[in-house]
Amino acid sequence: MKPAENGLSDHLTMSGLGRRFGSFTALDNVSLSIRKGEFVCLLGPSGCGKTTLLRLIAGLDLPDSGSIALQSRDITRAAPAQRDYGIVFQSYALFPNLNVAANIAYGLQPRHDKQRQRQRVRELLDMVGLPGAEDKYPAQLSGGQQQRVALARALATSPGLLLLDEPLSALDARVRDKLREELKGLQQRLGVTTLMVTHDQEEALAIADRVVVMNAGRIEQIGTPAEIYRQPGSRFVAEFVGEANWLSASAIGAQQVRAGHHTLQLAQPLPAQQSLQLFLRPEDVIIKPRWENARNTVLARVDNISFGGAMTRIRLLPEGMPGQVLYAEVCPGMLDRQPLVPGEIVPLELPADRLLAFAGEASC
Amino acid sequence: MLSMVWRWLPQRSSVSGEARVAAVLVWLLVLILMLGLGLPLLFIFAKAVQDGDGGFVGLRNLLQVLDSPGLMRACSNSLQLGVTVTALVVPLAFVFAWALLRSRLWGRGLWRQIGLSPLLAPSLMPAISLVYLFGNQGLLKGWLHGGNIYGFWGVVLGELFYTFPHALLIIMTALSAADGRLYEAGRVLGASPLRQFFTITLPGVRYGLVSAALVVLTLVLTDFGVPKVVGGDFNVLAVEAFKQVVGQQNFPRGAVVGLLLLLPAILSCMVERRMARRQQAALTARAQPFSPAASCWRDGVALLLLLAISLLLLSLLGVGVAASFIRYWPYQMDLTLLHYQFDMVDGGGWAAYVNSLQLASATALLGSVLVFVGAYVCEKLPGAALGRGVLRFLAMLPMAVPGLVLGLGYVFFFNHPANPLQGWYGSLGLMVLCCVAHFYTTAHLTAATALKQLDGEFEAVAASLKVPFWVTLWRVSLPVCLPALVDVARFLFVSAMTTLSALIFIMTPEHSLAAVSIITMDDAGDTAAAAAMASLVVLSSAGVSLLLSLLERLLGQRSQRWRRPG
Q1: DSSP assignment letter at B344
Q2: What's the pLDDT at A146?
Q3: pLDDT at B11
């Protein structure tokens, strides 16, 4: 079931949220709506305000300004227990002295109906893929298993909203990938509205229906993973998400720039500034088999080739752009057809529809 | 009062019963500590600037004290004593701690217990032992060549015994935080063991050494058990304060002396704060625990050092215990229980002992509950930020207040004719309050450290599951912190059993206490009975410590099952 089909209504709405800690502005006028059943990721570097936002939603902290509504009920200042959510922290925060069953049943009501609790715990453990783990203690479980128990505990009371605070970042890579997939599957099956905080852009792009990129207490861009990756809305997003080539250029026409001795065409209008930075993903650099006098085609010297598994990374020094370096990523199959050797000069196409221009000087 | 408290309840969150309960709890604890600590201290300040009839006289009392030659001599005596004892105890404790932690000797747990054994005894115990060894009928009196144990060196020896375990605990903590990688690097770079000691070991414990020195200095300056018994003509400030208040009923002068005794503690607190700011974490997360390499030579030296110091400590403890069973030291050395028949002597006898047991039990029980709840609301609950700030301050305050000063404050505050609680004066309840307040800081820090090790998100998770904090406190925080809580109870029991300084001011003859009756008996010349009572105190402290350890182990088997990895 696609989230967009069943959810016309907004499940969670934040408007104009602000939070300051002394002179530090953690959140600055943040507004965001999340639809019912949607999986949204808050993505940003540490200190960008994403965790502060999550804590405001959870009621663990109160905003200085703005409001939060859950299913059109104002919960801005409600106590955590008066909201309706389950939460999973990076540390899992499993109660160490209670076994798995008692951890999961911690919030179940009525508290003394042991029979029903046992049944519900069994359901939840089956759901997260840990059947029969009732009597174990957290210290006896691996990190991934603890994570599943924490998830089961958060879902036990069937909350309308699931909050995840960097839930996967304490796990090693292989377990993380597996759990990420399972988490997404479970979320779709249950249709629970989910908000996850992460600093891992790959994770955010892989799991979310929509990604919210945050920086310095503000929202930089909201969009689907493909939009965020292919059409970054700001220089910050372009730099933070994925790998990119940056070329210094200056505007010479409505959609034309000069980079070194070359004139390049863009498919989109340019920002108003004279001094620009061109953005191009490494996988969008096209290495041509032979020279054609086409638009946006330049010559470059192959400097270095490094094998990287699925993609091979090629360091290129374009002619006529002194001091610039371009990286291209090509699949090994292409290299089989057209072998490259360091020192060789190859023609490149920098596709006009993939080139984006941002204002400003070179970064770093 | 209540309406004032209500105003401080968190207004930001909407009506949440849970937040309200938390705020009420915070302010209730503040109220208790204000009553048991804050107000008595304020009354000392007030008393110090009043004459005997309550009229304001400004600094006249202080000037009078500064002008009185007797008091000034006591003051300089105190300082001389403090510096001497500190200069002796800190190296001894360091040597002991080094031999314990940096060698591979067997039985290090036993040595440790011996090093800490003075904690179980009232500070009078070494003084009594000294009297038996070097007093007028002392066994080893000949060693003094006609000299006299009553006086400066007698007090020094007694204080040495009394302050040793305090210094040892601090230095052991500092020494155990050693990063093995530094020593490996030193060895690889070719540093000799001596050079390693001076460039790695000593700088690592610098902070601990200074801290231990400050604690010892403060303890010596404010203790009056030892000087009372073996001081002779050697008068110190702490005894002077006692004489002024209890003997001469000169409250204003007692208050000024009390304030003078507050100075070293406040000074040490300030120095420690400054140092703590400069001190970086000695152990980073990646540090490797240090484990000493095998070395017969070093272990031999360590064994000799341990033996020598242990002998000194055990003799100062053991002679008193032994003497209590001996008919007439040193003339009739046959064993008897005669001295345990306290009803024949002054001091309250067995009733005093029972009182002490009751006091110590009540302090341990009520104190642990109070301290744990206090530490919990300080560490784990949001809201009532002002109240928690005040509570934290009050929790750290007792560290800077010697028992003697606290006792004076109790006299001035609770014995004030206008105080509605005056009827409480001299009761067991007040003494329990006094003990809890007196030992609050150490207990609070123990509980707070244990609570800090719990995941900070437990309360957040519980709130998201709509479970109120008191359920989480009961089901999770308390069971997990149980070992620390048993430690707190043990500490409170032993401290209340052995302490003298604060309680001697507020007890009444009807409610005498064991530690106080030791002084009474010793004053009356019944040294053997005093030794018997001191031995009883040691025995009870040791017994209850052992009992609590067993209880901890028993509880551990039932409720700490989760600690064992499967």
Answers
A1: G
A2: 92
A3: 42
The pLDDT of residue B7 is above 50:
no
A257 φ/ψ angles, rounded to the nearest 5 degrees: -130, 160
List phi, psi (to 5°) of B490.
-60, -45
* Same domain assignment for residues B312 and B332: no
Q: Which residue among B318, B335, B352 closes a domain?
A: B318
Beta-bridge mates of residue A33: A13
Please answer yes or no on whether B464 and A77 come within 8 Å at the CB atom. Answer: no
Residues B339 and B292 in one domain: no
Contacts of B18 in chain A (CB under 8 A): 79, 81
B467 interface with A at CB cutoff 8 Å: yes
Split at pLDDT 50, 70, 90, the class of B396 is confident
Residue A364 confidence (pLDDT): 44
**pLDDT the model gives residue A6:** 43
> B273: domain range?
70-318
What's the pLDDT score for residue B286?
55
pLDDT in tens, A143-200: 889 999 999 999 999 999 999 998 888 788 888 888 899 999 999 999 999 999 999 9
Residues of B in contact with A132 (CB under 8 A): none
Residue B17 forms part of a structural domain? yes
The owner of tokens 């070991």 is B201
Whether A82 sits inside 8 A of B16 (CB atoms) is yes
> Do B239 and B371 have their domain in common?
no
Chain B environment of A85 (Cβ under 8 Å): 464
Same structural domain for residues B502 and B461? yes
Strand, coil or helix: A213: strand
Residue A7 has pLDDT above 50, yes or no: no
Angle at CA of residue B305, ends B304 and B307, nearest 5°: 65
In a domain, B54, yes or no: no
Residue A302 vs residues A87, A299, A316, A325, A333: alpha-carbon distances, Å: 50, 10, 5, 10, 18
A21 and chain B in contact, CB less than 8 A = no
- Residue of higher predicted confidence among B67 and A61: A61
CATH code, domain carrying B356: 1.10.3720.10
Q: Does B557 touch chain A (CB under 8 A)?
A: no
d(CA A198, CA A41): 7
Cβ <8 Å between B465 and A153: yes
**Contact flag A98-B565 (C-beta cutoff 8 Å):** no
If you search the block for the tokens 């006091």, which residue do you land on?
A: B359
Average pLDDT of the residues in A103-111: 88
CB-based burial of residue A301 (10 Å sphere; 0-12 exposed, 13-18 middle, 19+ buried)?
A: middle
**In a shared domain, residues B299 and B197:** yes
Å between B277 CA and nearest CA of chain A: 22
Q: Calculate how close chain B gets to A47, using CA atoms only, in Å.
A: 19
Same-domain status, B296 and B200: yes
Report the amino acid identity of residue B61. Answer: N
Nearest to A80 among B464, B479, B563 (CB): B464
Predicted confidence (pLDDT) per residue in A17-52, tens digit: 999 998 899 999 999 999 999 999 999 998 899 999
Domain end call among B318, B333, B352: B318
CA atoms within 13 A on the CB side of B348: 21
Q: Are residues B505 and B428 in the same domain?
A: yes
Q: Is B232 in the same domain as B175?
A: yes
Report which of residues A72 and B31 the model is more confident about.
B31
**Prediction ipTM score:** 0.80
- Is B56 domain-assigned? no
**B14 in contact with A, Cβ within 8 Å:** yes
Question: Whole-prediction pTM value?
Answer: 0.82
Please state the rounded mean pLDDT for residues B106-119. 85
Contact B13 A154 (CB under 8 A): no
Q: Which residue from A77, A80, A138 is facing B463, i.e. has the nearest CB?
A: A80
Number of domains in chain B: 2
Given this model, what pLDDT does residue B8 score? 45
Q: Domain for residue B60, yes or no?
A: no
Assigned token pair, A199: 């600093």
